[in-house]
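User: I'm writing a short report section on ligand binding and want a predicted complex to refer to. Could you take this sequence and BES and write out the structure as tokens? A short remark afterwards would be nice.
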Amino acid sequence: MFRNKAPALLALITTAFFLTACSKAEKEVVDNYDPARDYFTFANTDQFVTEHLALDLDVDFDAQELRGFAMLTLRRLDAAASRVTLDTRDLTIASVTVLQSGSSSPAEFSLGERHATLGAPLHVELPADTGASFDLMIEYNTSPASTALQWLPPELTAGGRHPLMFSQSQAVHARSWVPLQDTPAIRITYAATVRTPESLLAVMSANNDPLTPRTGEYHFDMPQPIPSYLLAIAVGNLYFAPLGEDTGVYTEPELLDASVYEFADTQAMLEQAEAMYGPYDWGRYDLLILPPSFPYGGMENPRLSFITPSLLAGDRSLVSVIAHELAHSWSGNLVTNATWRDGWLNEGMTSYFESRLMEVIYGVDRVDEERVLMYRELLQDLETVPEHMQALAPRLDDTSSEDFQGGIHYSKGQLFLEYLEQAFGRDAFDTFLTSYFQEFAFGTITTEAFLDFLDAELLSQEGAPVSREQAEQWTYQPGLPEGTTIPSSANLDNAAALAAAWADGEVVLADIPLDDWSPHATIHFINSLPADLAHDKLRELDEGWEISSTRNAEIGRAWFIQVANRRFTDAYEQLEAHLNRFGRGRLIAPVYSALAANGEDRELALTMFERARSAYHPITASWIEAGLRRAAD
Ligand code: BES
Ligand code: ZN
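Assistant: Sure. The structure tokens for the complex follow:
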């Protein structure tokens, strides 16, 4: 039933910039690729669908495992089916019981062969009298190797005195902490009881009551149906501070004040988002600021976005990540990509929405700066991503598993929506998006269904400025179609011009008004330095601007990529400090790659990686490894 297409699709879902290379042996062409099918699940969702999940879990930091019960409420679609298949990975299943109308009976179960990406199917044989609706009670525990869970010792937290654990379920990791139908096509409500060491607090992607007493036993309810990749949990020495009426932040006490300052605009973002695209359907919106090993910038877990602490720059310059995760409450969490191949509908639409939110709150100049930086990264991706992976929704039947899509889902997706906005006008396009969110709320969407809706609402209007064919060029063809509006920013043009002038000795550093610049302009200046710039000049820049000791993680990223590319060894000690300070893949993997690819420092990159590795999340470690491998080719 399952065909081995997963590695190529995994490339897509690991959109965040890098990808595991897969062995040639795993490469296999799928005949008749079915765009509506999720190739990442073993679950027989055509025969049974899950409606509700009830969890009862003990959080054991010593054993590094979750232990307890998952009860799935299932509805039967196929009267003849007698076996339920669920997704698991590295779970130990103790028992399975079928419950219906007051009676219970043990069920036979077996775990199938373990697949590297997908984990192992759990087959449950139903007793003959099992009806149309029943519960499966599964007694189980996770393994310390769970790919979704990171168990941090106290040393890797801000406070250094308590352990902390967190989950990252997207894209296919929920199955490594809960046995379930792990596909975005199935939505479930959930409830959970979680027992933790007494001094710690548990939070979930559910209703977190900021006033919950810290008893070590916590109850959660998620009344809105969500796809499994949005199941999330974290436990640690967490405290809450309000940001606004419906918004707040959880983090360790050591980071609470800094977080309240940095994310002060969250309530305004929420209000603006509602004004733009309709009601926020999820109750509260809170942030959880995690330790540095959190591998992403942010993860849109409903009601509680998980966020990297690397955003704490002290100047609110990196909060577009908050706008992004909040925007997912509409694009992604409310209207969900049907399979990971349609990931651009989550990420591209969210990037567009993020930009719109940033514009109302911080003004068009800042957004133009962010768009230019995004566009520059897209151009780099388009140079490295093979053509057949450059479509927003690639036809994967002719592709190979080594390919990756970089940030194309995000930035090409955003440019597509900006193109439509320009063609139809902002008002008409906002009306379209608002009705899109309404029409598909709490449902899933394929690229094809999106195109049909776009066609019905906008493209088929008389005299419409965009044809279906043009829209399909974006979704199915490589590169950027003609008519793409190239982002531009006068501030950034100015920074680039000054980079060239300073490099040529026409301007002295002291005359560059760095203090008036946004961090984005500084990044653009760094990115615009000519390739043949002498080390003396780099030294002058670093001494003058103290870039190597910047507090801003994105400036550090841009700078240390240049430092590594140019073998500017004066700054290698601080480069390594950067690699140890941050665990977000985006901030460090390209620095390792640049080091490994500069012709001299591959060994050094490997050594630095070995030294830092135990503090990294396995996802970040695998990106770094993939980058190091590519640099070796
Ligand atoms: N949902 C993504 C993170 C993700 C994507 C996890 C794919 C697993 C698989 C999240 O919303 C995201 O896009 N994060 C970005 C934020 C940025 C684009 C503003 C990140 O982490 O860099
Ligand atoms: Zn996202």
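A remark for your report: DSSP finds 18 helices and 21 strands in the chain. The longest helix spans residues 364-384.
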